[in-house]
User: Which sequence fits this backbone?
């Protein structure tokens, strides 16, 4: 079975930065008061950060069973964060149109 942890760590850290850019741009443009976009992006940031943490633990651990557990946790957190980003994009599309 191929290790997914390095890929999860790379993608999570990149998308964490993307989520932080979303939050920053919303705060600067003062749109955050009228939508829930910043809340979804904030939750995504938390999930991406924890996904980074658990994928790093998965890479660094020596025990195979713990490695698999950490990788599974990181994978589910990453998926949840992606869903939050999709909801953020949908809210942004509805707000623009």
Assistant:
């Amino acid at each position: 079975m191929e290790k997914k942890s390095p890929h999860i760590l790379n993608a999570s850290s990149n998308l964490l930065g993307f989520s932080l850019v979303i939050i920053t741009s919303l705060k600067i443009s003062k749109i955050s008061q009228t939508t829930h976009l910043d809340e979804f992006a904030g939750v995504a940031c938390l999930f991406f950060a924890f996904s980074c943490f658990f994928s790093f633990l998965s890479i660094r651990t020596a025990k195979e069973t713990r490695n698999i557990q950490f990788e599974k946790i990181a994978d589910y957190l990453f998926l949840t964060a992606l869903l939050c980003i999709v909801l953020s994009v949908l809210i942004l599309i509805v707000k623009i149109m």
In short: The mean pLDDT is 88. Helices lie at 5-29, 37-60, 64-96. The radius of gyration is 15 Å.
